[in-house]
Write a structure and sequence with these properties.
The chain has about 270 residues and is α+β, with helices and mostly antiparallel strands. It has two domains: about 110 residues, Aminopeptidase; about 110 residues, Alpha-Beta Plaits, CATH 3.30.70.360. The chain is about 30% helix and about 25% strand. It is built from six helices and twelve strands. The longest helix is centred in the first third of the chain and has 21 residues. It is elongated. It starts with 8 loop residues before the first strand and ends in a 14-residue tail after the last helix. The chain binds zinc ion. Zinc ion (ZN) binds next to α2.
Length: about 270
């Protein structure tokens, strides 16, 4: 066991086969810093639960447990269920990812027990995500004494921000955001160093590859000749696009939802994240 991570949990239904009919996936951690549960403890008020992480995703994890129990109680045609709970989803699932991918490959259906959208929409597609860390290396100089000898890393960064944001195409489902920037050491110094972090969301891998090419070209041909740019990062999550099979499955869920009086949620759900 890795001392840095709590263990992940895997439950299998009795008499389990090598392949899973259903994979139920969830996570046990929450996004809140240590101490939040003491400051804002769990409580139930008027039949509603309150506290850090009750939505994302203790409610989903509980739902999975109840669902597995229900399947067991109904007895006949008991499906083979694998219920897997990740211990560090909010940290990026670094250790859990190969395990989850292995389980998914052996499963016919995978359901993620995260909360639905605020309006109850079922999530059946999701954008891919990509992160870049950019480091700009310029040349320090004093802005009063020898500014012509410097090369501003901040100036190069500024060009990058504008160029990267220009690549956003909301209609095509592609957006870039330079969300964090830092640089410079004092107001009267030409900045030797600047850094930026970029988040990109996309619906087709080709979009990400095209942006990646553009970024590499910008590294090769900087806006300021004497500034060097280093990049790290890349695609961390490919897009989840709806397949014929997943849409057919969603339609079945929809039909059941309508029978039980829950509104049709399928049509409105396009690239919400
Ligand atoms: Zn979650």
């Amino acid at each position: 066991m890795d001392p840095d991570f709590a263990p992940c949990l895997e439950f299998l239904s009795p008499g389990h086969a090598a392949e899973h009919d259903i994979l139920l996936l969830g996570h046990m951690d929450t996004v809140f810093p240590k101490g939040t549960a003491q400051a804002r403890p769990f409580h139930i008020d008027n039949n509603r639960a309150y506290g850090p992480g009750v939505m994302d995703m203790k409610s989903g994890a509980l739902f999975g447990l109840y669902l597995a129990h229900l399947f067991k109680e109904t007895g006949e045609a008991f499906p083979s269920i694998c219920f897997a709970l990740n211990s560090h989803e909010e940290l990026g699932s670094a250790r859990a990812r190969p395990w989850i991918e292995g389980l998914a490959r052996r499963s016919h259906i995978a359901l993620i027990l995260e909360p639905a959208r605020a309006n109850g929409d079922l999530v059946f597609e999701r954008k891919g995500s990509c992160r870049y860390n950019l480091t700009f290396h310029g040349k320090a100089a004093h802005s009063g004494v020898n500014p012509q000898d410097g090369a501003s890393a901040i100036n190069e960064l500024a060009h990058w921000i504008i160029e990267l944001h220009k690549l956003t195409d909301f209609d095509a489902g592609l957006n870039l955001n330079v969300g964090l920037v830092s640089g410079g050491t004092s107001v009267n110094a030409i900045a030797e160093l600047a850094e930026a972090k970029v988040d990109m969301r996309f619906v087709e891998n080709d979009q990400a590859l095209r942006v990646d090419e553009r970024i590499k070209a910008m590294v090769e041909h900087p806006f300021t000749d004497t500034v060097r740019t280093e990049i790290s990062g890349g695609i961390s999550r490919p897009p989840m696009n709806a397949s014929e099979e997943s849409l057919a499955f969603c339609r079945r869920i929809d039909a059941i939802a309508q029978k039980t009086g829950i509104a049709n949620r399928l049509a409105k759900n396009r690239w919400r994240i």
